[in-house]
Amino acid sequence: MKGQNKLFIAIVIALIVGVGIGGYVHLQYPESAEPFSKNIKLLGTVFIRLVQMIIAPLVFTTLVVGIAKMSDIKMIGRVGTKAMLWFISASLVSLFIGLMLVNWLEPGHVTQLPIQDAASAEELLKSSKGFSMEDFVKHIIPKSIFEAFATNEVLQIVVFSIMFGIALANMGEEYSQPVIKLFDIIAHGILKMVGYIMWFAPLGVLGAIAAVVATNGFEIFKVYAIYLRDFFFALGILWLALLLVGYLILGNRLFELLRRIKEPLLIAFSTTSSEAVFPKLVEELERFGCNNRVVSFILPLGYSFNLDGSMMYMTFASIFIAQIYGIEMTVGQQITMLLVLMLTSKGIAGVPRASLVIIVATCSMFGIPPEGIALILPIDHFCDMGRSMTNVLGNALATSAVSKWEGQLENHGGKM
């Protein structure tokens, strides 16, 4: 734990130093803010790319080993069913909380922001065009597993890994055991790499934060204070709901889980990437006592289907844009929007700025000007910090809960 605490302290210090450096550049050398931001952001890019480098092989090996080790197809079905029930319930709760609070707080009616030029949203508008069921299916089912690996398409890797794992589980041990053992060794070798990569995290955090503050300054916090205040209040309510359910299932061990995942939570918050903490989260959940087969099976699924923070943000941001434009939506329309978001969001895991792409597509569908996304682009980074952190919490709780339901949550903590 000493090493963990050192890393945690280093990340907090990097966060503070990053804000300080970014603020200093913005105030003292505004003409250099853009090039400075571009260069220091490379620190964050290095860290994110190091993590992305091991995502695909880790998801593949851990998921295949997790399913193949189960050997019992009934157990795979049982665990998968429990996981999906959690994911669907958590997604609906997240969407409803976002819907209720944005209607109650009405940030779009209070802020009176001017309608901005849509140029900054042009890239997102282009990427959302042609959104269809065909694209959804293509995004889920891999044309080539090598292409899925090369592009880090987590959802496609998950689909292939589940099928391959089930195939191994149905073969005799004489054939499957050598393959399972090889993949198990590879998975633990990659987890060993995690320890080395995580020491780049403080530099990544410093670079990411300094770049944003240098470019936008502290004014961005003032301009969008009401929106951020309301969004993080809604996020707080979602956290209370998740932690309450977690406490009902895990009891006092919930606090031990939170201590275990404090680094992944902070890194996700600082880097706006829940993907960046996937390897570390696998490691910490196993140490917490979750069965490694359950972790290997559920966590990759969770990263595709259980993005609680992103789900809540999508309803919150969509209705906010409608409020800005003075568009009144009936309760029926809002419930329909919620169900549409529930379905469409399940196919966008791994897509850059996925939440914004889905918001644009949904706004177009309901007659809300999609150009309104330009309104929230300047503060999306800060909202993304909160939703990434919430995604990590939701997946940690889902994995721990299913381990507990399966009677496979060790009280003394797991061993690597």
From TrEMBL:
BP terms from Gene Ontology: dicarboxylic acid transport
Primary location class: membrane
Membrane-spanning parts: 7-27, 47-71, 83-105, 154-172, 193-214, 226-250, 319-344, 356-379
Membrane topology: Multi-pass membrane protein
Organism superkingdom: Bacteria
GO cellular component, as recorded: plasma membrane
Localization terms from the record: Cell membrane
Gene Ontology MF: a single term: symporter activity
Pfam families assigned to the protein according to its UniProt record, in alphabetical order: SDF
Keywords, sorted A to Z: Cell membrane, Membrane, Symport, Transmembrane, Transmembrane helix, Transport
Keyword Membrane on entry: yes
Protein name per Swiss-Prot or TrEMBL: Na+/H+-dicarboxylate symporter
Record organism: Chryseobacterium arachidis
Lineage: Bacteria, Pseudomonadati, Bacteroidota, Flavobacteriia, Flavobacteriales
